[in-house]
Hints:
By secondary structure, this protein is low in regular secondary structure. The protein has a domain at 60-92. 10% of the residues lie in helices and 11% in strands. A hairpin with a 6-residue loop joins strand 3 (65-67) and strand 4. It starts with 18 loop residues before the first helix and ends in a 16-residue tail after the last strand.
Amino acid sequence: xxxxxxxxxxxxxxxxxxxxxxxxxxxxxxxxxxxxxxxxxxxxxxxxxxxxxxxxxxxxxxxxxxxxxxxxxxxxxxxxxxxxxxxxxxxx
Length: 92
């Protein structure tokens, strides 16, 4: 199985541009234009488009869970810092 390092840059590092080149790009017409399709999606330069839809099932908060008032994560009741307070052990 091949090992993939996801932290490596996907494109080679860009050489530093001179001040004149940056000014010329800034003053060029449509330098910061973004293509807007009819479906209101944006194609940003350098971005990759996935053809798969990512879905995550949402489960309602259970009776033995609480939501921490500091980090807003739903935790199990045994992770409560003190009785009667909705603060988890990590935030206390």
